[in-house]
Specification:
The chain is mostly helical. Helix content is 48%, strand content 9%.
Length: 361
């Protein structure tokens, strides 16, 4: 199916219910959400899928997902790169953007559910995770991408990873303020990280080939609020024709004939963040031709060879589809999480939406 045009207040509940059911089917009893049946689970994509469950109204299932992840947190606040159940699948590294993302997920779930007990219970987990991440921030603002098996920093930084951390620090700040536990040093670290992303490109991709050919390096600074307003619109316009295949979606890599559904959904939200609502609606309308009969979405489509590749239907892709639909329709109270930067003001009272201010950066 294609041509699904969404607008405010018109969340396609019946159409997307099978997508939510797909997530529930893959989720294990203890809360783990692997990439697909028989696959491994990494902390970032697990949270992406859990956010999809929250949007779908499956609040208990989402909370089980966060509690599963909390139960595997290491003493230093981090997680390994991937797991299979309670067993570590990849112990070669612990990635900072993976670790930080729990703050985004926990804040998202609180916005949807209003469950303050959940927020308070997960606060120590978020605090430990953020402190781990910020220990790897360099003096010029960038945050190292990972530590190795022995906990030694791997000395380089990623634009996409650091942009994701920038959003997670916004969410971590909001959690702290909502619970009356403000951490002003987190905001300072976020400001320094934003300055590095905007003004110090030499601090990224120092020891490997540039990742600029990947679409996420292109739009993630917009999706996560590093760039706003005119700079955001200019960034998206500059490489639009490189990455977007009309009628299909967003390429994963500029030089490969391969559109991917998760990146396309994230680009939808980046467009909304930049104020380009019309193109966001149009792009999202193309993506449902890559939906299977069970409501899941294929990873992507190779349009030269005319084949779905890889033949996988990841849970995190389903999560991204639901996040984009929410952003387009304002279905939940978390619908603007990736389309607007909002920082809570310490000491204010009331609902989060009524005691916040826009980030001037």
């Amino acid at each position: 199916m294609s041509g699904l045009y969404l607008s405010r207040g018109l969340f396609p509940q019946e159409f997307l219910r099978p997508t939510v059911e797909f997530l529930l089917e893959i989720q294990r009893a203890d809360g783990e959400i692997p990439w697909f049946e028989g696959g491994y689970t990494d902390p970032w994509d697990h949270v992406e899928a859990a956010m999809g469950l929250s949007i779908g109204g499956e609040l208990e299932a989402a909370e089980r997902a966060y509690h599963w992840l909390a139960g595997l947190q290491l003493a230093d606040g981090s997680w390994w790169a991937s797991y299979r159940g309670q067993t570590v699948d990849n112990n070669h590294r612990r990635e900072t953007n993976f670790v930080a993302y729990i703050a985004t997920g926990v804040w998202h779930h609180y916005l949807v559910s209003g469950n303050r007990d959940f927020l308070a219970e997960l606060w120590p987990v978020v605090e430990r995770a953020v402190e781990f991440v910020l220990r790897l921030q360099g003096p010029r603002g960038e945050i190292g991408w990972a530590v190795d098996t022995a906990g030694r920093p791997l000395e380089d930084a990623l634009v996409t990873g650091c942009s994701s951390i920038f959003k997670s620090l916004e969410c971590a700040h909001n959690i702290a303020v909502a619970l009356g536990e403000p951490r002003p040093e987190w905001l300072q670290a976020r400001q320094q990280l934003g300055q590095a992303l905007r003004s110090r490109p030499e601090r990224f991709d120092r020891t490997w080939e540039s990742k600029a050919r990947y679409s996420m390096d292109w739009f993630y600074p917009v999706l996560t609020g590093v760039l706003q307003g005119r700079p955001a619109r200019e960034r998206l316009a500059a490489r639009w024709s490189e990455f977007v295949r009309p009628g299909m979606g967003c390429r994963c890599v500029a030089d490969q004939p391969w559109v991917t559904i998760a990146e396309s959904c994230e680009l939808v939200m980046a467009l909304l963040a930049a104020g380009d609502h019309a193109r966001a609606v149009e792009l999202y309308s193309w993506l449902h031709q890559w939906r299977d009969s069970d409501g899941a979405y294929w990873t992507g489509y190779q349009f030269v060879e005319d084949l779905l590749w890889p033949e996988e239907k990841p849970t995190w892709t389903a999560g991204a589809v639901l996040l984009a639909a929410d952003a387009l329709t304002s279905h939940t109270a978390a619908s603007s999480l990736f389309t607007r930067v909002t920082l809570l003001e310490p000491g204010a009272a009331g609902h989060p939406a009524q005691r916040s201010h826009r980030d001037p950066a």
